[in-house]
Amino acid sequence: MIHYYDEKFVTNYDIGLVRYLVQGYDEINYAGSNTGLYEINTRNKSVRKLHEDIFNNLNEIHNLNFDHLNNAIWIGCTNGFYKFNLSDETIENIGINSNQGIGTVFSVKKDNMQNLFLASSSGLWRGVWYRCLICT
After folding, report:
1. Percent of the chain, pLDDT > 90?
2. Would strands 28-33 and 132-134 be described as parallel, antiparallel, or unpaired?
3. Is residue 63 within 8 Å of 108, Cβ to Cβ?
4. Which pLDDT tens digit goes with each residue over 51-69?
5. Could you tell me which residues are beta bridge partners of residue 116?
């Protein structure tokens, strides 16, 4: 990923094929790629790989959703659905708590009622992760 500011080259971040980028607090951005989850600090031009034991080339990230209300990032990836807590940098596998497999999560969106919707290989899911609304 190449970083430009005011149309001038700043630096190059070697973080793989970036599929989704969200803006966090201050000058922090988060990138989800085929090689993991990354925190990019644009102030000091540093990059940090987060939870590389979970997010790697075997569990590629497809989508990120920054959630101000819950101070979290919702992550859709090859092995399901995760919540990354920004306060303490803990990670929770949401799909592991349900008896049904969510599958690969390609998209995570939030509506104006704060419901999360997941588009996955097993169908469309909403809010309550054990209830599949539309399954194919």
Report:
1. 49
2. unpaired
3. yes
4. 988 888 888 999 999 999 8
5. 110
Structural Rg of the chain based on CA atoms: 15
C-alpha angle 114-116-122 in degrees, rounded to nearest 5:
165
Q: What is the pLDDT of residue 95?
A: 65
- Average of per-residue pLDDT across 37-59: 90
Block residue for tokens 């497809």 = 62
Q: How far is CA 76 from CA 3, 5, 27, 46, 96, in A?
A: 24, 29, 23, 24, 13
The strand pairing partners of 117, in sequence order, are 109, 126
One-letter amino acid identity for 126?
Answer: R
- CB-based contact 5:18 (threshold 8 Å): no
CA pair distance 62, 60, nearest whole angstrom: 6
